[in-house]
Amino acid sequence: MITSRLTAPLLIAVSAALTVGCASDSHLRREDGRNAAVGAVGGAVIGAVTGGDALTGAAIGAVAGAVIGRLMVDGRERQVYSDGRGGRYWVDEDGRRHAVR
User: Fold this and answer.
1) Which residues form the YMGG-like Gly-zipper domain (predicted)?
2) Per-residue pLDDT tens for 75-96?
C-alpha cells in the first residue's frame, strides 16, 4: 500500500514520464529524457542537502528538467521551409528535418 508520503512524489514522477513520452520524434524524446534525468539528479541532491526528501526532489526535478528543456528547444527561432507538396518543416543542427505541426 502506498503511503500518503509517497503519493505526491509518485504522481509527479508519473507526470514527468508522461511529459517526456509526448515528444514527437526520437531525437527530441532522447533530449527530453536527458533533461529529465539531469533535473532528477539535481532535485534529489537539493532535496537531500536541504533536509527534505530526496525522492520528492528527484520527481520535481525530473518534471522541471523535461519542461524547461522542452521550452528551451521550442523557444529557439527556426527557419521554416516548404517541401513543395504543402508540407512545412524545419532543420535541426544535425541537418534532420522536423515537420511543423
Assistant:
1) 33-69
2) 565 678 888 888 888 887 788 8
On whether the CB atoms of residues 9 and 59 are closer than 8 A, the answer is: yes
Q: What pLDDT, in 10s, does the model give residues 48-79?
A: 899 888 899 999 999 988 888 777 755 565 67
Residue where the block lists cell 504522481: 11
Alpha helices per DSSP H over the chain: 4-21, 26-49, 54-74
Q: Burial of 8 by CB count in 10 Å (0-12 exposed, 13-18 middle, 19+ buried)? A: middle
pTM over 0.85: no
Cell of 37: 534525468
**Cα separation of 8 and 63, whole Å?**
13
Q: What angle do CA 46, 22, 41 make, to 5 degrees?
A: 15
The closest of 73, 59, 45, 50 to 5, measured between CA atoms, is 59
